[in-house]
Amino acid sequence: MEAAGDVENERKRSMPNSKHRLRKAALAGAAGVLVASAPAFADEGMWTYDNFPAAKVKEKYGFEPGQDWLDHVRLSSARLAGGCSASFVSANGLVLTNHHCVHSCVQQLSSAKHDYVQQGFLARTKAEERVCPAMELNQLVSITDVTAEIADATNGLEGKAYSEALNGAMSGLEKSCASGSDVRCDVVTLYSGGRYHLYKYRRFQDVRLVWAPELSTAFFGGDPDNFMFPRFNLDAAFVRAYENGKPAQLDHFLRWSEEGAKAGDLSFTSGHPGRTDRQLTIAELEVQRDVLLPRRLIYLSELRGMLTEFRNRGPEQKRTANGLLFYVENSTKALGGMRNALVEKDFFASKVADEQKLRAWVAEDPTRAATYGAAWDRMAGAQREFRASMNEYYFVEGGNRSPWGFQGDFFGFARTLVRAAEEKPKASNKRLREYNDANLPAIEARLFSGAPFYPELDEALLTFSLTKLREALGTDHPFVKNLLGKESPETVARKAVRGSKLGTVGARRALYEGGAKAIAASNDPMIVLARRIDADARAIRTRYEEKVDGPQRVNGGLIAKAKFEAYGTSVYPDATFTLRLSYGAVEGWEQDGKAVAPITELGGAFERATGEDPYALPPSWLKAKGKLALATPMNFVSTNDIVGGNSGSPVVNRNGEVIGLIFDGNLPSLGGDYGFDPAVNRAVAVHSQAIIESLRTIYGASSLVDELLPVNTANGR
Amino acid sequence: MEAAGDVENERKRSMPNSKHRLRKAALAGAAGVLVASAPAFADEGMWTYDNFPAAKVKEKYGFEPGQDWLDHVRLSSARLAGGCSASFVSANGLVLTNHHCVHSCVQQLSSAKHDYVQQGFLARTKAEERVCPAMELNQLVSITDVTAEIADATNGLEGKAYSEALNGAMSGLEKSCASGSDVRCDVVTLYSGGRYHLYKYRRFQDVRLVWAPELSTAFFGGDPDNFMFPRFNLDAAFVRAYENGKPAQLDHFLRWSEEGAKAGDLSFTSGHPGRTDRQLTIAELEVQRDVLLPRRLIYLSELRGMLTEFRNRGPEQKRTANGLLFYVENSTKALGGMRNALVEKDFFASKVADEQKLRAWVAEDPTRAATYGAAWDRMAGAQREFRASMNEYYFVEGGNRSPWGFQGDFFGFARTLVRAAEEKPKASNKRLREYNDANLPAIEARLFSGAPFYPELDEALLTFSLTKLREALGTDHPFVKNLLGKESPETVARKAVRGSKLGTVGARRALYEGGAKAIAASNDPMIVLARRIDADARAIRTRYEEKVDGPQRVNGGLIAKAKFEAYGTSVYPDATFTLRLSYGAVEGWEQDGKAVAPITELGGAFERATGEDPYALPPSWLKAKGKLALATPMNFVSTNDIVGGNSGSPVVNRNGEVIGLIFDGNLPSLGGDYGFDPAVNRAVAVHSQAIIESLRTIYGASSLVDELLPVNTANGR
């Protein structure tokens, strides 16, 4: 599945700094003079709406989207704050997105009596529509270029003064733009600072569930079919935006194409790709390919085997391990796809050629050479440091998330409590960044959430991860000696988890509020463990930040500037979880020498079904089979350039109508982090006809069909 | 551990064809004229005794082993037929080898009452020495060059006539050489046929266990320390060769160096490296690095996680899964080390340079170009085919061992029975090669062995491997559809294992003897499963042999011939599990920027011990601690070039004395399959002093010490 969440986390973990990218591209109109010798890749790009290459689309597909078309599709697009995309599909605030984007809402609305995840949900009237707790929709109302304002505010400044002025200017622009609680404004940094744009959104905070099918059809095929094609998934759902307790009234929404996608159709996707790293240097890509991705894959694969078998301990263990197992399996496939892309010789050679071209262009001019010339070698030096310190850093600190060596909720609480006690007394800007004032609310929300957790799983995870830590750093590493002393990973984990009181919110709150004194006095074994290793862990982090992260940021920033000087906005910026438009066509590809057809049919789901998980169709499908038009198109692929975060994006034809709904990418598209290969990268979508046919024939959701297809319904179809 | 068995199997699986290698090397004396522009790597090489570069050793180390020295060390060396090396260390047939080389003997001699694996074994008198079932020792008596005889016999022949003449000539030479049951003769193919040598061995078939310490000291540190250094392992054992019921009397044996290895010492290892693939082309190495090794590592890692957690089902499950888990962990480390070697840019670049040099030399001469020039591109073509068919082949057929998609003993029996029924009626040379007359006895031995096996583990393994097969080939693959039908991997495995009668020797014998008719009539669900997929599996195998294996053999053979034409015997041949001598020095290395000292001390074992597995020393050690000389050298590393099969090799100084005992290599040495990096590849040995000190102070084995150190003991130590 293409939700931004999990895969994004994996990606973020791999690459700490966000920069932008460019590739073989047309000559920039700017002062840069890097002559384009290679054509732009067909259909590549996640373009901002204010810089869409409409002329290119016309050249290839004979259709040039005009400003009205672009405004209409933009205003019909929506973002789900949790990490997905969506679109308005009726004047009455109806919103189309993926089932996996509303899965947590469906779960929250469920009870022991009504398991809507398993049974599906349908509101037959508006009164039956149920508020999704904590769901927010954003509609992009306008884009304003504020590059000049930012430049004015930061002109001549450097270092800390520069960052402070930059942050101040951004906050000021955002505040003066956001006039009320129904407006959200963000200054978006594009091209690593080449451009600053002010994005103004209309906010919808009352969002209600309208329809969600059973998980067994939404995620039909489970992990074996995840990121694969042919597919037969009804990964679709409807919610509705409300304002003042009534369905929101919208001037712009996408009309439904009853015919939907056909092979060869021009297709647009309008959505919010989460993050790409297409600008990484060769030195960084080599480390990804040779070191980081393989190591992570091996770690996750072993964890996957452990969790799969852990589920056999009993039904409760199965239930508690399922969520993590899904995450691990999804990540393993995603990272495997990323590695596959990097070991493709032609793809990697194209990245090398791009870098050599840019470096040659930099070297041509003495000023450019003096400014940027050394950045690549310094980046390569940072990567050598990364190789040397990677194990320590990832196993002990873990980047953006829990360290590879200390998995489980209990340890996470303990480290947070130990560190918060030390950090909170400091000035906000002197703290470890995750403890500054802006981030404390998130930390407190996690600490004091009553979410259930599972000591038996926690102990298994901590045992596993401590064992892997010892293996990675070696038994002789001083950190390992201090950590384990004369005990085994099993013993350390067992004592720390079984003896800990951190399972209760009260205990955590007492330690948090008690601060350094309470932490120092605690004899909770998990606190003792976190306390004992914290000085060593901080030293490892500091070393990493000085030797790896800092040099990566500085030199990555320089390379990004050189690129923007060369290419300007003739290329698209890296993804930033903001609205982008991509174009392409409904088209299969060749896999292992065989052609993969671009469109599947409803009937294929029945052929594929075995009755056993994950190929068991829900009873509603089996019951309706005789009445269904089995030749109805079900899922399809297109050449649109998407990544995680695009889940829920509408696929739109030249008339601005919905012809499908993005829910996944194929296996090769997982290389989309690094670049786009038009030969094999494919977006995977639910066909618009499949949604209508299932609503009508399986789910009996006639009012929903009427809302989507008002004219046709009047025709009596 | 460096036993040839497991790791060799992994290596064999990866590379079906055996060829030879060369590298930057001195100019051959032969007609070949490839000028050496680069120096030979220091200390590299597993040299045959009749072509040892004594002058090179003198140049570097100031000592030139003469013919007497070489003859003495060769005649003091021994091979354990099961896949290890050894040496004679007294005139009365005493033999030194590794504990892990006699582990299965120790286990076979154990009973419920006496677990010698856990408690160790010591024969205080010769009468207490116990016969090791099925252990055989070989001593290399002579080497005769029979290249001319083979050439005469095969002159002018091609294709099948050539193979038949070659096999006939080899058998003839072996038969006329082997005069009795105490002699064994093998024609050894060196340099992929550049040389044929007749190796004559004296056989010792009565071998008795003298001393083996507890597994917990022999394999101290378990998997975490496996392939690592510093180490503290007493991986040593003594057996004794008997003739006519009496200890064998030997003219040649290695005297014991009481002082043993010191840092900087010149060191020789005399042993039987099992197999290397240092001649692989770049196209083959790329596939290893990018595709095969990563995929296998991911598979084994997931299996490792599954087995680790499977052990938690209960004590019996732990016992039954331990052996496989050891194999999986050992393989994972070994294959990881091989991958690490290949992603080292400098190492890989040296392989590329070697190939380019040879190709340039071939291209220089029209005759050579016509003969060999196309081989590399054809090999690259075979590798493209390999990438396309690898998953099918390994998951369904599996090369030399059980297929990745069908793990477990039950399926192995079923496939063997199904295929034997079809193959046996054919002429021997028309059968699948593992069913020809020469191989049938091994197949029957396996089928009719009463070795225990474990249905619960078998079912878990089959479930796991069928799930991986579906994942690798995809749910839509015709093979998968035929295999699973409408069932899940769990269901197929459960039905096939639980319903099968193949657990009894009687059932297997009846099916084997009943032939095709019995197989066709069987409704044993495991037989039904193996039968159902057999036609598809055979088709996959045929395709692989035609597209990949055949072209690899042909073009690999051509490239090997070109190399021999260029370099002759100025380089060493790839390992062939025959006796080789390597030279080097006792020397640490630099790891992650830190110097690793070359020698550890006995006391380090106590510091490292935690009392918890795998760092629990046996009671005998804890009891003796106060009396032990803790500064006694324990383990050490040297630059000798070794691989699996060298386990048990003596480390010998310039006086021909035992200064240590090879038992492992360090992590970088696992790249030894592909080449030798003198900067980091290290052999790991038990120090001769550690063996004496532990025999004397821990094990009270004074008569053994007297036999090893007769003079010194007379001196009162």
TrEMBL record, chains A, B:
GO terms, biological process: peptide catabolic process; proteolysis
Pfam families per record: Peptidase_S46 (PF10459)
MF terms (GO), sorted A to Z: dipeptidyl-peptidase activity; serine-type aminopeptidase activity
Keywords: Aminopeptidase, Hydrolase, Protease, Serine protease, Signal
InterPro entries from the UniProt entry: Pep_S46, Peptidase_S1_PA, Peptidase_S1_PA_chymotrypsin
Signal sequence segment: 1-42
EC numbers on record: 3.4.14.-
Region (Disordered): 1-20
Keyword Hydrolase among UniProt keywords: yes
Signal in keyword set: yes
Functional summary from the UniProt entry: Catalyzes the removal of dipeptides from the N-terminus of oligopeptides.
Family: Belongs to the peptidase S46 family.
Annotated protein name in UniProt: Dipeptidyl-peptidase
Organism: Vulgatibacter incomptus
